[in-house]
Amino acid sequence: MLKEMDLLVESEGAQVVMLEEEGLPPCLIQKSDGATLYATRDLAAAFYRKNQYHFDKAIYVVGSEQSLQFKQLKLVLKKAGVEWADDIIHTPFGMMLKNGKKMSTRKGRVILLEEVLNEAIDLARKIIEDKNPYLENKEEIAKQVGIGAVVFHDLKHYRTNDVEFSLESMLNFDGETGPYLQYTHVRCHSLMRKANYTSPTENVTLDEAEAWPIIVLLGEFNDVVRNAWKEFDPSRIARYALDLARAFNQYYANVRILSDEKQQEPRLNMVYAVAIVLEESLRLLNIRAPKQM
Predict the structure, then answer these.
(1) Could you tell me which residue ranges the DALR anticodon binding domain spans (predicted)?
(2) pLDDT in tens, 203-259
(3) DSSP codes, 193-222
(4) Are 142 and 125 in contact (CB under 8 A)?
(5) Domains of the chain and any CATH numbers
(6) Do 251 and 188 contact (CB within 8 A), yes or no?
(7) What are the backbone dihedrals phi and psi of residue 112, each rounded to the nearest 5 degrees, phi first?
């Protein structure tokens, strides 16, 4: 197709599409020995996916180092008159670092995901054993906490930022971590169990200045999710959940939630809302939210 449209130019025996007017280097389509390249296969794959799946948008989640390649891909499609060229979207992400260095299979600086998850589960199991040795379903909860810690550590960073790998910081129950959110969710359910609370039964007013930061954050949840979707940025949900958990834990530290009979129900209504929003935030990040830990 590119040849028929006179878009291919020979350069030192290779076939390229010139992108000089767009401020980019030529897109190499075929090497001088006739071999194809990533760009060639990406072009073919784009047409196949459009014909096969009739996509509205094709989102390529590929490392930031490939940004030039995807800019060239879109421009070549535009030069070819493809109407859906702008529906090709590159969603780049940063590198995973170990001691400040890029993980690399060729240089032997790599940790397999299975090993990471197993180590995270083992460490979570030890922490849970120390905190709550009589907890039921410890093994299942250790899996939820360990795997959730790894997932959250990745997703809490803006996707183009590089991420430093540290298993110990991932499983810190007091830091900006998945276990911190899960533990806050558990705290909410513990309060509701103590009060035999199941769900809101009527509209009641919570007139406390201490609760206002939480109420404001709860009202922002829909917008946060919508913006995360628009910008392909799960870190928005992760950072929001951390803000909500911090606000709730500060309230928990300053207010004896179950001590005032008149205020108990409206307070628990808010606790219930926090638990729901935290659980949904974690679910959107593909992380489980246990009710006990």
Answers:
(1) 181-293
(2) 778 889 999 999 999 999 999 999 999 999 999 999 999 999 999 999 999 999 999
(3) HHTT--S--S------GGGHHHHHHHHTHH
(4) yes
(5) 8-93 (no CATH), 151-284 (1.10.730.10)
(6) no
(7) -70, 145
